[in-house]
Design goal:
The chain is α/β, with parallel strands linked by helices. The chain has two domains: 113 residues, no CATH class; 330 residues, TIM Barrel. The protein contains 13 helices and 15 strands. A nine-stranded parallel beta sheet has the order 5-4-3-2-1-13-12-9-6. A two-stranded antiparallel sheet has the order 7-8. Helix 6 links the parallel strand 4 and strand 5. Helix 1 packs across helix 12 and helix 5 packs across helix 6. The longest helix has 18 residues. The two termini are 20 Å apart. Bound molecules: 2-acetamido-2-deoxy-beta-D-glucopyranose (3 copies). One 2-acetamido-2-deoxy-beta-D-glucopyranose binds next to helix 4. It is an enzyme of class 3 (hydrolase). This is glucan endo-1,3-beta-D-glucosidase. Its EC number is 3.2.1.39.
Length: 459
Amino acid sequence: MAPLYILPLLLHLICPITTVSSVGINYGTLGNNLPSPKTVAQLLQSTLIDKVKIYDSNPQILQAFSNTGIDLIVAVENNHVANISSTKSAAQDWFSARIAPFIPATSIVAIAVGNEYLATDDDSLDPNNLIQAMQNLHEVLLSRGLDRKIKITTPHSMAVLATSFPPSTSTFATTLMPTMTSIVTFLADTGSPFMVNAYPYFAYRDNPTTVPLEYALLGNSTGVHDPSGYVYTNMLDAQIDAIRSAIASLGFGNRSIHITVSESGWPSKGEPDETAASPDNAKTYNTRLITKAQSNKGTPMKPNDKIDIFVFALFNENKKEGGASERNFGLFNGDGSKVYDVDLSCEFCSGTKMEFGFGPGSKMVQRGPSVWCVAKPHADERVVQGVLDFCCGAGGVDCREVYENGGCFMPNKVHAHASYAMNAYYQMHGRNYWNCDFKGSGLVTFSDPSYGTCRYSQQ
Ligand SMILES: *[C@@H]1O[C@H](CO)[C@@H](O)[C@H](O)[C@H]1NC(C)=O
Ligand SMILES: *[C@@H]1O[C@H](CO)[C@@H](O)[C@H](O)[C@H]1NC(C)=O
Ligand SMILES: *[C@@H]1O[C@H](CO)[C@@H](O)[C@H](O)[C@H]1NC(C)=O
């Protein structure tokens, strides 16, 4: 049998390009009626969401997401940035106390240092501390050999731009230029994404007579022409490209900086004058946003640069400050019922199509101590095919069940066959989470993927 470490090499040879489209979500916890992190983690596993961003380093959440196959982005709160920037040992202490106890069981892939740190009204936040805190944390990762797995970044608000239209001429606010230059240099040097929170909703709300609703709603609006020739059919693309131009204007034109939309969403309810904040519009925007996140498409300026997207937000948060819309960005109410219908179902997460939800009218899924391994629903088909070939070949799995006349032949789909084979391999090898990695295409699940004549083995 081939040792496991050969697998990535084999896969690399078979399929050099890995594209896994995935959908992220922001899991904020400013509510007094939210389910436990454990419940949230277990139920997210049955959806297409495979990346979760939180706003702190809450140990209950980090623990809850261990061995779930879901990647986590954790955060340093704005008011703790100064501490981490003060000395390298302060950064070391924070990492040792907050993060180290949970890795590698919890797949932490990034640390967001602050949130919209440069655009807050809080005068006590010194802009110079931000880059210093990022550098200190990066050195901690370097010293622990974790810098490739965990990226250090910081989510910005669109307010860091001097102007955002037309996209091709956008620049950062003059006062922020030196800080932005340091941050972008750091991101380029460390291969980390530039994160931006982008809300066409607010642009529409503040200018309803000049911004067409379809343009804000990620529709296929009549094109808005940029003087450089780019045509924008939706505002989110224009906002992303405005960021791109601002970065390029710092002189990073030839360095590749990946842009991630760390927050975007649409409220289902607002103040009386927020007429566009409706369940229908929220459903339209977030459905389109999720489709966009799953596509490999970029924006008019960089059509082939896939944009990672984190939907804002998982829950309505009843203790959030600000106008009513702030408390109504969630896809779900605190009791787990859907605020409106958005399809997060995931055909191959568990073998059976399952509804996310744990409130009135939704199925509560009973989970025992058993775990299984399946293919991620959106893992690239070539990768999954490579995994299937490996498991049934050198991996030593008895794959007769997925061949014609086998109990798991139907559905005759590569993800389904691979899930069967990956699970068998995972069970055979002691169910360590790394036996279900398969170059990022595997997912551990607590719900039995067996169906009909197809039985998934377990230890
Ligand atoms: C940073 O935070 C830690 C833990 O809360 C505390 O012990 C330490 O004194 C703080 N350091 C500074 C410079 O504020
Ligand atoms: C948007 O409109 C263009 C031009 O009418 C069309 O070619 C394209 O397929 C449409 N895209 C979507 C996503 O509807
Ligand atoms: C990128 O630009 C910098 C500064 O203009 C230059 O020194 C460098 O050689 C360029 N790199 C590539 C790969 O073009």
